[in-house]
């Protein structure tokens, strides 16, 4: 048996083992933060905060799990930089591109719900959507480099995700122009900043 064979390892980690406990921690933190505040939060605001956590973790589950650990003789043979596609548009897979747009539409909607309107613009939504997408892509690359988990990094994903966030922002902004829907949507609004900075 060679040295490489002796420490070879292959394992699959499903999302639930990591994201399940993370969601419980998130839920406890949110509930404790809300309890410390003097004001009362409505059921709709609770729905916003809890569903936001579910959404973020669902995106992570879709984009990074299952994590395939392949070490030793099982590791991928291609270099890490071969997993990066830096060419936009020309290498686009339309089905994947559309799905990536759809995936980040809720991200734009949630920004409308948790950020004060006077501090929100489509440019800010675009930047946040891009950074969220970039974080996912970097995580995928790091998982490939460290664990040989077979994910690729694609600039088209960054473009699609950013567009999705902007689309979600404009969609809820348009719907909010209707008085009935505005009143309904306003019930779900909650300041995430005031929640975070609470002592």
Could you give a short description of this structure?
The protein is built from 8 helices and 4 strands. It is mainly alpha-helical and 199 residues long.
Characterization of this structure:
- This protein has 199 residues and is mainly α.
- Helices cover 65% and strands 7% of the residues.
- The chain contains eight helices and four strands.
- The radius of gyration is 20 Å and the shape is flat.
- The model has no long low-confidence stretch (mean pLDDT 86).
Multimerization status? single chain
Roughly what fraction of the amino acids lie in strands?
5-15%
| Terminus-to-terminus distance | 57 Å
What number is the mean pLDDT? Answer: 86
In total, the number of strands is 4
Into how many domains do the coordinates divide? 1
Largest beta-sheet characterization: 2 strands, antiparallel
Structural class: mainly alpha
**Biggest sheet: strands side by side, in what order?**
1-2
Order of helix and strand elements from N to C terminus: HEHHEEHHEHHH
Report the principal-axis shape. Answer: flat
Helix content: 55-70%
Keywords: Membrane, Transmembrane, Transmembrane helix
Organism: Tetzosporium hominis
Transmembrane segments: 15-34, 46-67, 87-113, 125-146, 158-175
Protein name: VanZ-like domain-containing protein
Secondary structure layout plus pairing:
Layout lengths: L2 H4 L2 E5 L1 H22 L6 H22 L2 E5 L12 E2 L8 H21 L7 H26 L5 E2 H21 L3 H8 L5 H5 L3
Parallel strand pairs: 3-4
Antiparallel strand pairs: 1-2
Helix pairs in contact: 2-3, 3-4, 4-6, 5-6
